[in-house]
Amino acid sequence: MIAVRRHFARRIALVATVLVAAPLLAGCWQGLGATTTMQNSMNSGNGTQEIVGSLRIENATVVRNEAGRASLVMAVFNQGDAADTLAGVSVDGQVLTAPPVTIEPGSFATFGYGAEGAPVENVLLIEGLATPAGSYSTVSLAFTTNGVTEFTSLVVPDVGYYAGYVPAS
Fold first, then answer.
1. In 3-state terms, what secondary structure has residue 8?
2. Homologous superfamily of 40-162 in CATH?
3. Fewest Cβ atoms nearer than 10 Å: which of 113, 120, 124, 160?
């Protein structure tokens, strides 16, 4: 009877050890600062993602040509119940002249490109951008309802995938 209890206790101990050791050995939990956790919030060539109030800014990227002319390319989704207007934009402290763009609830607006083959709308042009491609620019967006957000966005050259995003004139 005692031998059976010892055998049973050893099996229980072995199972408990395996259950505790498996996640540790697999490396499934690396903490809140793990690289895989941080990648989603990093600004990269895929654009910066940002949320301000009920607005979601997707794929914000500054596309720059050799002469220093650049375009801010992004989409802004309004997930709220009220319309909001992009009233002001600045890149590296340079205020851009752009007409206000209203984004209705449940819709989105594209900037610097046309959605699904549509013509380009809402060009946010930057003249004389000193930040070279491969660096980061500080972008500030001011909305009438949801307020101001500031983030960094990668500056990419107007070649390959980004060719044609900087208007010639």
1. helix
2. PCu(A)C copper chaperone (2.60.40.1890)
3. 160
